[in-house]
Amino acid sequence: MSQLRINSADDKSLPRYIDWVTLVLYFVMVVAGAVSIYAATNSHYTLEALFSFDQNSGKQLLWAGLSFVLGLALLLIDKRLYDAYAYPFYALMIVLLVVTAFIAPDIKGSRSWLSLGPVSLQPAEFAKSATALCLAKLFDTYGFKLNNWKSYAIAGGIILLPMICIVLEHETGSALVYSSLLLVLYREGMSGLVLFALASVVAYAILALKFASLTLLGIPMGIALCFIVAMVLTVAMLLFYCRSLTLGRNVAFWYGGTGLLVWLLSLAGVSVNGWVYFGLVIAVSVLYLLFGMLRDDLRRVALTTGFLVASVAFSLVVDYAFSSMAMYQQKRILVTLGVEDDPKGYGYNVRQSQIAIGSGGLTGKGFMEGTQTKLKFVPEQHTDFIFCTIGEEQGFIGSMAVLLLFAALILRCIVIAERQHSTFARVYCYCVACYLLFHLFINIGMVLGITPVIGIPLPLFSYGGSSMWGFTLLLFIMLRLDADR
Amino acid sequence: MEKDYSLEKRKWLVVALVVAVVVLFAAKLYDLQLGDNNYGDAAASNAYLNRTIYPDRGLIYDREGRLVVYNQPAYDLVIIPKDLKAFDTLDLCQTLQVPIEELRQRINTLKDGRKYSGYVQQVLMRHLAPEVIGRLQEKLFRFPGFYIAQRVLRQYNYTCGANILGDIREVNQNDIMADDYYRPGDYTGDLGVEKSYEHWLRGVKGKEIFMRDAFGRLQGRFHDGRDDVAPEAGKDLKLSIDFELQKLGEHLMEGKIGAIVAIEPKTGEVLCLVSSPGYDPALLVGRERSKNYAMLLTNHYKPLYDRAIMASYPPGSTFKPTQGLIFLQEGIITTETAYPCSRGFISGGMRVGCHGHGSPLPLKPALATSCNAYFCWGFKRMMDNGHKKYASTRDAFEVWKRHMVSMGYGYRLGIDLPGESRGFIPNSNFYDKMKKGQWNSYSIISDAIGQGEILATPLQIANLGATIANRGYYITPHVVKEIMGVGILKKNRERHDPTIDKRYYDDIAMGMRMAVTGGTCRGANLPGFEVCGKTGTAQNPHGRDHSVFMGFAPMNDPQIAICVYVENAGFGATFAVPIASLVLDQYLNRNNGGLSPARQAAANAMASRHTVPGYTPIFSAPKRPDTAADSPSTAATHSKTDSATVKSLDKQ
Asked: The domain that contains B115 carries what CATH number?
């Protein structure tokens, strides 16, 4: 325990080294969040209601107050403690997650809440810090580099393990948050091809689903578009990744020439079947590229060929993969893509939240004057849809202010990360930035109708003690690490 | 551990993602909040339930303060389709006494979102009987989405004056588009003063704003009722019409086609405005309105056509005073100038016939005997430029026309009723076209005696009487004496001075007095009053001559000017004069008990003299409708059986 003593010399210098920008942003956001929750849940202003612990806003103030205490405590803990206990902490959290998945009561289909007397906590929110610390510790290990399968497997495993546990708790949204750590891995040396592949997968999925009902050359237009994009990306990879002008040019002419021929034939009234055309053209190009591997950079051309084949394969299975999702997930995605319009059913939440935000106009309806949220047209208005209250009552100006607060906080995290001398602190800080970015993108994106409805909170704004404490933990450990840089 | 600087630049991807997300969201926020869409309306229709409180429509009184039009409350059953929940259809049908299929069908029609807004009150059933409303009100809470809206039915104390009073009807799509005030199911004035004074009569709607949550539950008043508006009752109207006079006028015109217009010369107030055939205003009230309206609209005698202000007739000899005035003003004649008449105007190979009387005659006797020749000579003299005053006949005719227009002919007088016609006074251009440039005083000589192309409304003819009575001016004729609590509208006090010197009017008035004392309209003479008058027998292409009278009384300090126009009734003296005489008698003796028994008998005799063959008075409502009679017969039969059931239930 001697290692864990609190360094009194550090204590005195702490205020000097603490990052006040982050602290102020944190404070402003917590207060703004509590005020928004107050506005979302009350229709009359009373002082009692503000501080009543029977009300969500009062409770949120309690969470916030406890967060400040927690934050202060975190700042007083020796930095080395985080380093030394990163793995045990991670292990403990995983155990807790698994236990939770089995003993937690079913609350609206979710088994993520652990009841501790009067309060319920979501371990998933705290597992974020544990995973971040664990990942930081891994990269801090002497000689660790993301350059072989083993290192990828370990880093990936650390990220995947909590995700699997949380999926077991039926909190798919919270699990997805961990995928944002791929950006951290990228920053720490992961091949950009992984991000490229991931982005392509998302693009194929969107194209295949959005244009599933139209046809092109006698096949679903979504799949045809995926093939075309895959072909274009393949040419781009040949040119810029393999740096092979010959291969790129030849494949491009092959694709372009046959495409033009098909187009001209269709003008002339001869219709070419899509399966035949794409199958032949892509098969020929794959054969050509296999031959090309001998001439050029074997590994890169092979990867490119693999990408093409995988793209085609993925395009063909998107539909199947999609249909294996839960019905409500399918519907939410289709509504977001604009394929289905269901303003009274699955599209109700998003429709009402757009009405709420849209009706706010430039300056909003004024504090506590929002009708959409107060009269419960917007569901979950104090938790996941808290941004609606801000949009409706504070208008474009208020919404932009909140958006910019988040941008400032995330960018500040990046600045802090990049000024760290230790890999441990840097990786950790990046984790915090990526978690925040993911939450911001999914939560506000869902409220605005850009991303599908995925139930994750808006950090520091949404009602809920676990989320509030989880992000307090993340941010204040970052501040502590930064103060010691 | 060393920092890997080659990897540090990768931070820019993360930074770029942050910026991209913020830019994407900012663009979407801009589109949602500042773009051109109606999210504000959508939010309002979600949250607010506006309940309209209808103001009482203004009442209508006559000039003596007699109540003519008043309101009776009526109840409509309305629904807000969006608020409908499952309910006991059978129970509602029994309460309303309608067959279940009918109710279902009506509700389904209104629920069709393409035609009817789901957020707005839609009328399901109109004018429910009070006992039905009483029963319904008790159990309305069981039928979410159903509301009772109080409306107003107009009720009438007189069975006459429908052309003046007009009626109210439900607004149509055009009304709603044109005026923000109206919502579907509202009423608006359709004819008469109900239309022209709609803005005063309708009042200001009140509203109560409630808030409701996503589950349709009321959450109290918006802003605690601070934004609620109390309704403001419509203004009452005091008509200038004497409804006893109007009643007499319509009685006298029974079985005849035509009009009576009486004006108080000093004020321009119209005392009666009879258009015959008329109809009972109560016909256009309640559930039977559309049926009755169609009946009136398609009837051969066009009862909805207000002949007093819409019909353009040849004024005939009632036009002659205007000629005298113009000739005097233009110096064509003096009061001494006499023209010969040898049973007509014979000149230039043409003849305008006249009847036997002394010759030659100066102006006043010419008016008294209604000598056609006199006015033809004067007109010919003026048009032929006997005084070298005008550049040409065209020029002379233009001068003549300007005088006519200044006396209120050829344009609308601006009475405060919808649909007034302007009559017709030709100008030189008109004759250039009509006669292909070949015209002179002979070709238009008929204009001198109110025939030819000249057309005037009975109102314009009466207005001439008022102008002569006033000795040279008139006030815009109007039927609303006063808007109670507001006063007299400025346009109803507007004085017009024709381009004729006042001094000439006395001679004309004297000529018209002579016509009554010893000329063509001796029948208009009333003991105790100096009546002045001018008959007319207007030729027309539709059959027998129209019988016309224009006059005023008493000669000095006139109280009433009048025009009586009876279509196809022959000489002025046979119908128009006795009718006018009775109207004048009634009005001038209004403070002495009106018509004497003998005169009342004369009036009844006149009422039974019909000029329309086979005429039957069909335009009266069967009886004064109370609300029970207003409900359809089917409902009434249902009501009997149903009230029996209710009673037995009560016993249990």
From this structure: 3.90.1310.10
* Chain B residues inside the 8 Å CB shell of A354: 32, 39
Q: What letter would DSSP give residue A237?
A: I
CATH number at residue B354: 3.40.710.10
Q: How many domains does chain B have?
A: 2
Q: What pTM, to 2 d.p., does this model score?
A: 0.62
Residues from chain A contacting residue B7 (CB–CB below 8 Å) = 187-189
> Would you say residue A360 has pLDDT above 60?
yes
The range of the structural domain enclosing residue B197 comes to 48-233
- Mean pLDDT (chain B) is 86
Residues B150 and B266 in one domain: no
Distance from CA of B78 to the nearest CA of A (A): 25
Show the beta-strand stretches assigned E in B539-612: 546-553, 560-566
pLDDT in tens, A416-428: 999 999 999 999 9
Asked if B329 and B404 count as a contact pair (C-beta separation under 8 A), the reply is: no
Per-residue model confidence (pLDDT) at position B629: 35
Distance CA B282, CA B165 (A): 11
User: What is d(CA B471, CA B557) in angstroms, rounded to the nearest whole number?
Assistant: 10
Q: Which helix (H) or strand (E) holds A377?
A: none
A418 touches chain B (CB under 8 A): yes
Nearest by CB to A396, from B3, B10, B33: name it.
B33
Q: A399 touching B, CB under 8 A?
A: yes
CA–centroid distance for B201 within its chain: 14
Average pLDDT over residues A97-105: 89
Q: Does any domain span residue A267?
A: yes
Question: Does B533 lie in the same domain as B384?
Answer: yes
What does the pLDDT look like over B64-81, one tens digit per residue? Answer: 999 999 998 888 888 887
Indicate whether A14 and A149 sit together in one domain.
yes
Secondary structure (H, E, C), B155-201: EECCCCCHHHHCCEEECCHHHHHHCCCCCCCCEEECCHHHHHCHHHH
pLDDT at residue B634 above 50?
no
Average pLDDT of chain A is 89
Q: Please say which residue of A329, A352, A380 terminates a domain.
A: A329
Tens digit of pLDDT for each residue in A368-403? 888 887 777 887 778 889 999 999 999 999 999 999
Q: Say if strands B546-553 and B560-566 run parallel, antiparallel, or are unpaired.
A: antiparallel
**Out of B22, B43, B214, closest to residue A407 by CB:** B22
Asked if A176 and A442 touch (Cβ cutoff 8 Å), the reply is: yes
Q: Which of B5, B29, B119, B211 to mutate to test the interface with A (most CBs of A within 10 A)?
A: B29
- Cβ-nearest to B39 among A354, A407, A430: A354
- Considering the domain boundaries, does residue B24 fall inside one? no
Q: B321 and B365: one domain?
A: yes
Give the end of a domain, one of B210, B233, B256.
B233
Smallest Cβ distance to B14: which of A189, A392, A433?
A433
Q: CA nearest B21 in A: which residue?
A: A441
Residue at a domain's end among A275, A295, A329: A329
Residue B196 lies in a domain: yes
